[in-house]
Amino acid sequence: MALMRPRQTKFRKWKKYYIKSFEYKANKVRFGAYGMVALEGAHITAKQIEATRRILTRQLKRVGRVWIRIFPHIPVTSKPVEVRMGKGKGAVSHYIAPVKPGTIMFEIDGASDIISKEALLKAGKKLPIKVGFVDRSKVGDITMNQKFVKSLKGTGAARKLQQNNGKLGSQKRGFTSSSAAVVQQVFNRQHKMLQRDAAANARFDFNEEEDDGLLSDPPSAAEQRDFEYLRDEVADRLISRLDYVNRDFPNVLDVGSATGSIYRAFQANNMCNIKKITQSDMSIEMLRKGEIVHNNNSNNYDDMIETEFVQFDEEIKLPFEDNSFDLITSSLSLHWVNNLPGVMKEFNRCLKPDGAFIGAMLGGETLKELRSSLLLAEQEREGGVSSHVSPMAHVGDIGQLMQSAGFAIPTIDTDVLKIEYPNAFSLMEHLQGMGENNASISRRLNVSRDTFLAAAAAYQALYGDDEDVLDGGVPATFQIIYMIGWAPDPSQPRAKARGSAKLSLKDIDGAKAASVKGEEKEQNPMTTYTRTTLTKDDGDD
Question: How does the average pLDDT of the chain come out, rounded?
Answer without folding.
Answer: 78
